[in-house]
Amino acid sequence: MSRTGTACRLALLLGLLAGCGHGGKNDNDSGPRTNIDLTVTQFAVTPSAADPEDSLHVTGTVQNIGSETANPMQGDSFVLRFNLSADGTFEYREEGFLQRVITDPILPGTSFDFAFDAPYGGGDTQAKFGNFCNSMDCVPPETGVIGVKVDGADVINEVSEENNFQFQTLDVIGTRVAVVASLCDFGNPGIGSDGCELTISDGLFTQRYHQPCTGACNAREVAFPNELHSRVFASLLIRNCTRSQVPNGSCGGAWTIEAETQKPGLPVLKTSYLLQCRANYPNTSQGCTADIEIRDPDY
């Protein structure tokens, strides 16, 4: 996608976010209507591009535009909640990647400034997003949305529940993970399920690939275009080795897991892991596994 196309897409997304609220309920069950009306202004997020391990600096102001004090009594509080989404929504009961309890009284017409630091990879982010894609081609980085919700737990029944949100776009930097079949040595081409079967998972999604070829192979597939997890689990299965039916017979295979991460202003980070496996007589099948770090948390 061109830079012009990306800029237009960002402008459109920000325009849509300015008029949207959130996913889930429009109101809450926190009791009778109050004259409290909390809203968030001047919301900002830095840096503008980050991977899940990077710390984001989120700042803004909570204003009470109602006629009644928020947190009027000792022990009163509400939650500021921050999340990552593809389209600027807070799902019902979503915890987000950061929550902060606010106990300060906010009188009518006054405001409360906030500033916090946290990576978006915390909380429930990675339970919702493994592979973060927000476009058809899914070329990292992908455009995401950082949101803030005041009264995130819906404990205050406000004058309006529709002005509790603010959003900023963020370039979500994940890791492109490809798998390459580098060897599947069965002597003869496999039949049906015979051959070298690779399974790779990020904990949310699982991809499977089968290679029945003989000798060096060039099969390459992108398993995860923009992976947020820093580790994946891979297993290689040598299936139905007919050579193992004779003394000293064996079949082997190898797949390479390639990972590539690119941050603005930094050299691309590339890593690779060769997962090898061999079935030896008298076994006709053999499995091999690996827990693979695809992105250095310090990058």
Question: Which helices and strands, and how do they pair?
Answer:
Layout: H1 3-18, E1 38-46, E2 49-50, E3 55-64, E4 78-85, E5 98-102, E6 111-119, H2 125-128, E7 142-150, E8 165-172, E9 175-185, E10 195-201, E11 206-211, E12 220-227, E13 231-239, E14 250-261, E15 269-280, E16 286-293
Parallel strand pairs: 2-8
Antiparallel strand pairs: 1-3, 3-6, 4-5, 4-7, 7-8, 9-12, 9-14, 10-11, 10-13, 13-16, 14-15
Provide tags for this entry.
299 residues; mainly beta; five-stranded mixed beta sheet; four-stranded antiparallel beta sheet; 2 helices; 7% helix; 44% strand
The overall pLDDT, averaged over residues, is: 88
Radius of gyration over all CA atoms, rounded: 25 Å
Category by helix and strand content:
mainly beta
Estimate the global geometry from the Cα principal axes. elongated
Largest sheet: 5 strands, mixed
Identify the strand order in the major beta sheet.
2-8-7-4-5
Regions with pLDDT < 50 over 5+ consecutive residues? Answer: 1-8, 23-27
Q: How many strands in all?
A: 16
Beta-strand content estimate: 35-45%
Termini gap: 25 Å
The ordered H/E elements are HEEEEEEHEEEEEEEEEE
Characterization of the model:
- Helix content is 7%, strand content 44%.
- It has helices at residues 3-18, 125-128, and strands at residues 38-46, 49-50, 55-64, 78-85, 98-102, 111-119, 142-150, 165-172, 175-185, 195-201, 206-211, 220-227, 231-239, 250-261, 269-280, 286-293.
- The longest helix has 16 residues, at 3-18.
- 36% of the residues are buried.
- The strands form four sheets. It has a five-stranded mixed β-sheet with strand order 2-8-7-4-5, covered by helices on one side. A four-stranded antiparallel β-sheet has the order 12-9-14-15, with no helix packed on it.
